[in-house]
Amino acid sequence: MRADLHVHSNYSNDGKPSPQEIVDRAVELGLGCVAITDHNSFEAYFDVKDNGRVIIVPAEEVSSAEGHILAYGIDREIPRGLSIEDTIAAIREAGGYAFAAHPYRWWSGLGEKNTVEHDFDGIEARNARSVPAANRRSERLAARIGKPISAGSDAHSLARIGTGYVEFPDGLETWQEVVRHLMEGDVRVGSKSRTRVTTLKYGTNSIIRWMLRGFKRM
Predict the structure, then answer these.
(1) 86 contacts 95 by C-beta, under 8 angstroms
(2) Taking the model in full, what pTM does it have?
(3) pLDDT band with cut points at 50, 70 and 90 for residue 213
(4) CA 182 → CA 25, 127, 187, 204, 217, distances in Å?
(5) What is the pLDDT of residue 192?
(6) Is 75 inside a domain boundary?
(7) What integer is the mean pLDDT of 147-172?
(8) Alpha helices in the chain (DSSP H)
(9) Domain for residue 142, yes or no?
(10) What local confidence, expressed as pLDDT, does residue 214 receive?
(11) How far apart are CA 179 and CA 172, in angstroms?
């Protein structure tokens, strides 16, 4: 079973598809599971958690004070702007697991030092919106420090869903089973990577959005 564990809906300020459109697209692609990891929002989960077609992992991409952190298996929204340590603690208090999102991304990643020095539950090893070198480094870092790995498309549009994925054993029926296998490392990951052209576009758009936000992190 393939799962895309990093997708954004229109509950993210830069996401386009609705949660229902994400479910429909996942079915078209043959995905068995999706984590809608909106920026600092947990609302999408309640829209589609009982859709009956695709497993939905309750999740969020949290903007900590130092960079983005993926929260899997949570039961409430995690506030933005906390320190890394406090964000991890808040995720665990909500019953979830904290994964360092795309740690080598210059704009919103935590960086290697922060990822190593804090007690993360896992690392996002593959992200389809990261450059190839960053994905390779993320995979090597996870292996070196012995952390579970996740992967996803980081899609903000329907066309990108499924371009990053985690492969789980077939037969899983609940998000709890998905998260358990993720934490046990019983997975394989894969993804496309960002090209030089899309990297240039991404950097330009990120700077513009950063300025429009008043020079604040997303």
Answers:
(1) no
(2) 0.89
(3) very low
(4) 23, 16, 6, 34, 28
(5) 87
(6) yes
(7) 98
(8) 19-29, 43-48, 84-93, 111-117, 132-145, 175-184, 196-212
(9) yes
(10) 60
(11) 10
What are the Cα distances from residue 136, in Å, to 41, 130, 177? 29, 10, 27
Q: State both tokens at 92.
A: 């665990």
Number of CB atoms found within 10 A of residue 186's CB:
12
Sign (positive or negative) of CA dihedral 9, 191, 150, 207: negative
Question: Taking a C-beta distance cutoff of 8 angstroms, is the pair 152, 125 a contact?
Answer: no
CB 69 within 8 A of CB 38: no
Position 217 in a domain: no
The reply to whether 72 falls in a domain is: yes
Strand order in the sheet with 55-57: 55-57, 33-36, 2-7, 164-167, 188-191
Q: How far apart are the first and last CA of the chain?
A: 32
Q: How far is CA 161 from the centre of its chain?
A: 12
Q: In 3D, which of 118, 37, 124 has the Cα closest to residue 84?
A: 118
Give the per-residue pLDDT at 193. 82
Tell me how far apart the alpha carbons of residues 140 and 44 are, in angstroms, rounded to a whole number. Answer: 32
CATH number, domain containing residue 35: 3.20.20.140
For residues 14 and 42, the answer to whether their CB atoms sit within 8 Å is: no
Q: What is the CA radius of gyration of the chain?
A: 16
Distance CA 88, CA 17 (A): 28
The span from the CA of 106 to the CA of 93, in Å, is 29
Host domain of residue 131: 2-212
* 47's tokens: 């829209």
